[in-house]
Amino acid sequence: MAEEIKTFKVTIDNITIDVPAGTTVLNAARQIGGEVAPPAMCYYSKLQGSGGKCRTCLVEVAAGSTADPRPMPKLVASCRTTVMDGMIVKNITSDKVKDARAGVVEFLLLNHPLDCPICDQAGECHLQDLGYEHGKEGTRYEFARRTFEKEDIGPYIQLHMTRCILCYRCTYVADQLTDKRVHGILDRGEHAEISTYISKAIDNDFSGNMIDVCPVGALTDRTFRFKNRVWFTKPVDAHRTCDTPGCCGNVTLWLRGNEVFRVTARKDEWGEVQSFDGKPGWICNTCRFEKKKTVDWVIEGVTKVNRHSVISQGNYENLVMPKETIQEVMGGREPKLLMDIHDESEVNKPGVHLSEIAGPAHSDVFEENR
Amino acid sequence: MSRKLLLEKEHVPGIRSYEVYRREGGYASVEKALKMAPADIVEEVKKSGLRGRGGAGFPTGMKWSFLAKPEGVPRYLVCNADESEPGTFKDRYLMEFIPHLLIEGMIVASFALGSNVSYIYIRGEYAWITDILEQAISEARQNGFLGSNILGTGFNCEMYVQRGAGAYICGEETALIESLEGKRGNPRIKPPFPAVKGLWDCPTVVNNVETLAAVVPIINEGGEAYSKIGVGKSTGTKLISACGNINKPGIFEIDMTISVEEFIYSDEYCGGIPNGKKLKACIPGGSSVPILPANLLLTTAKGEKRMMNYESLADGSFASGSMMGSGGFIVLDEDQCVVRNTLTLARFYHHESCGQCSPCREGTGWMERILKKIEYGKGELKDIDLLWDIQRKIEGNTICPLGDAAAWPIAAAIRHFRDEFEWHVLNPEECLTRNYGLAHYADPIHVPVMA
After folding, report:
1. According to the CATH classification, is domain B234-333 in 3.10.20.600?
2. What is the rounded distance in angstroms from the CA atom of residue A33 to the CA atom of residue A301?
């Protein structure tokens, strides 16, 4: 008889779910989904030991557990705190969390160059999303920002340290995917930087995955740099039989017409690589950098894209509406709409599916008596 | 004159050597402790009420009893000798002049905790003390107090000294453990705590030098007798390293029953302030603890005399009190500039932040830059509020206490010396040529009479 898995009841922002013991608060919140899931810049579920550093996922624990219902004195990093039975967590319902998170976002952006208009990561950058959701319109920092020289580490990857937020994810990739790490954190404090040992090139078969885990544009694909904006390309799921041990061969191709601009691992809704047969779907450098023709690949279909992502703007098919949890958080009350745009305008009626019309949309399409 | 426990024999010539130390009654506690059950030693330390001398003041006996004891897994004792707090230099004195006291305390603690390999992680800058400690360890080994089968009891213990490489952060216990393992000294994310997963993922206790040294008199005289020295929950004696504008800077052992005023002005201790100057402010427990103006330092907000002990120094919490911290007593006279002093501390924390978590990495540098601006007459009034907001967003939101340590001195300086900051902003030229002076910081505080 299979042993029963112990589950804990945890309440996050008034929503209660059961999760297996040992689950972190962040992963429990991700199971609920929507706005309740705290943002995470350094945590990466597929990389052991990651998390706890960026402090964006801080949450308030209003009650530790049923057995010990005392609140925790400080905000805790939800990615590194495991749930207890009867724990009550406040994320978006806590003013303390909102205040601290705004502070963390300000700190992260303090020395960030905000060169999004020329950054290849724009459109799929976690810091951009974070700044959009939690950031302030201006900065209070009036000193010169920290800058570094750009550095090519190996033939495929460029390190743009100025953009780095020191999440340490790439060092975990090097530790856990490759045989020998040749890069790491040098120096400390504000001067801390990612670097290779005396600029030694990283030439491991799996080094390209560092680009995928980088939440910002610090590590970019040299074969794709400045070739295109991600939202002009069309992502399709594809696979090939790869004989590199450890490579899953399942990728996303970023196409424009029939031209393959970029190959990445397949990402899930949290921006992490998807798992295949329970294993993270890392891909090798051959798949990522060498196979840049559609004939190299078996194309499965258009990638599912989040409706709210800028990448969705060129795609009408396979868009995913992210879950909305606000109503549940508010105990069933609906948020008060100040105005419904559809009452005022006939354009973009929700009932009209752009993927079903022939040709570009035109105002006629939305007219009532079409 | 109060009783001395740690520095009782400090002036015996040659006390650094094993022969003299042994002749003066040294290593008696090891002989006594090894006949006791380890659990009884822990009980004795609990009874003594000894609190960690590294800064946080956590009860040592309690810490020891938290140590996990899984079967077949080694346990470690690590002595934190990475004393890097500006203003604190008590451990250096202890290790330099009476090294055997630390070794003796560590042998007892190792036996109580079941640690067969114990480490002293010493600040890299204390290069010459490493030699002194290694000499003391080899003397102890030659005389059968270290090595295998100590005093024929079957207890084995080896002791090693490891030098740090000059990072303040490695005084944080988990960063110390990382560094001891040969890694970059980044603090670990807790839990798990070292008592469960510490050095090489084994249960570990990390104690300050002075804490481990205090184990010796506790075992010699009994926990009960030790707990009778001092007052309330501040038991035993505490080493204070006093510096700044005082006549007699140095190390003093106090029994925590004297007042702050007596400590500063009596000839037995600091000997007053030189050149007839007046007391302006004081940082009573090392650079991380809140600074207090003279009036709040000598009397609490309730109008009581402030004493040199954990409770009294913390009376009024951060609104009107400070902390015992690690006993680094820094005195500022009327000629000192609090803005300048705060800038110096901010520069230190900026330099020492490990850079692992974002609030401390980015915030410490930001605060230093703003303070520099104010100190050099380029500040604006809004900068003071901005500083307050930055420190508030760092405090409590970081992985380790370095963030708090960077935030507290700045918060306290603004809380108590806001008008000095404002004077700097409003008199940008004058502030370059003279200091604000004593102003009202020593004026008696009006204490409302409670009905």
Report:
1. yes
2. 25
Q: In the numeric block, which tokens belong to residue B451?
A: 């009905």
Q: Mean pLDDT, to the nearest integer, of B396-422?
A: 95
CB pair distance less than 8 Å for A189 and B357 = no
CATH number of the domain to which A186 belongs: 3.30.70.20
d(CA A217, CA B255): 58
Q: Which of B341, B301, B343 is nearest to B322 (CA)?
A: B301
3-state secondary structure chain A: CCCCCCEEEEEECCEEEEEECCCEHHHHHHHHCHHHCCCCCCCCCCCCCCCCCCCCCEEEEEECCCCCCCCCCCCEEHHHCECCCCEEEECCCCHHHHHHHHHHHHHHHHCCCCCHHHCCCCCCCHHHHHHHHHCCCCCCCCCCCCCCCCEEECCCEEECHHHCCCCCHHHHHHHHHCCCCCEEEECCHHHCEEEEHHHCCCCCCCCCHHHHHCCCCCEEECCCCCCCCHHHCEEEEEECCCCCCCCCCEEEEEEECCEEEEEEECECCCCCECEECCEECCCCHHHHHHCCCHHHCEEEEECCEECCCHHHHHCCCCEECCCCCHHHHCCCCCCCCCCCHHHHCCCCCCCCCHHHCCCCCCHHHHCCCC
Contact indicator for A354, A361 with CB cutoff of 8 Å: yes
Hey, is B330 helix, strand or coil?
strand
Supply the range of the domain harboring residue A89.
7-106
For residues A53 and A168, is the Cβ–Cβ distance under 8 A? yes
Given a contact cutoff of 8 angstroms between Cβ atoms, the answer to whether A249 and A283 are in contact is yes
pLDDT digits (tens, 9 = 90+) for A149-201: 998 888 899 999 999 999 999 999 988 988 778 888 989 999 999 888 766 77
Task: Provide the sign of the torsion angle of the four alpha carbons A116, A117, A120, A124, taken in this order.
Answer: positive
In the three-class reduction of DSSP (H, G, I as helix; E, B as strand; rest coil), residue B59 is classed as strand
| Single pTM value for the model | 0.92
**Contact (CB<8Å) A185/B184:** yes
Any idea which architecture B18-228 has in CATH? 3-Layer(aba) Sandwich (3.40)
CA distance B188 to chain A (A): 9
> Among A179-183, B4-8, B268-272, where is mean pLDDT lowest?
A179-183
Looking at residue A217, its pLDDT comes to: 94
- DSSP-H helix ranges across B314-449: 317-320, 338-352, 358-375, 381-394, 402-426, 430-433
Question: If you average pLDDT over residues B431-447, what whole number do you get?
Answer: 88
CATH number at residue A85: 3.10.20.740
Asked if the C-beta of B166 comes within 8 angstroms of chain A's C-beta atoms, the answer is no
Q: Is the dihedral of CA B418, B422, B423, B428 positive or negative?
A: positive
Of A145, A161, A165, nearest in space to A56 by CA: A165
| Residues A191 and A241 placed together within one structural domain of the fold | no
pLDDT the model gives residue B164: 94
ipTM: 0.90
Least confident of A225-229, A338-342, B222-226, B381-385: A338-342
Min Cα–Cα distance to chain A from B394, Å? 8
For an interface test with A, give the residue of B181, B188, B190, B397 to mutate (most A CBs within 10 A). B397
> What is the least distance, in Å, from the CA of A143 to any CA of chain B?
8
Same domain, yes or no: A11 and A43: yes
Among candidate residues A339, A363, A365, A338, the one with its CA nearest the CA of residue A351? A365
How many CB atoms within 10 Å of residue B13?
A: 7
Given a contact cutoff of 8 angstroms between Cβ atoms, the answer to whether B328 and B285 are in contact is yes
User: What is the spatial distance between Cα B116 and Cα B189, in angstroms, rounded to a whole number?
Assistant: 27
What are the distances in angstroms from CA A89 to CA A60, A73, A341, B357? 6, 13, 35, 22
Note the pLDDT of residue B1. 53
**Sorting pLDDT into bands at 50, 70 and 90, what band is A2?**
low
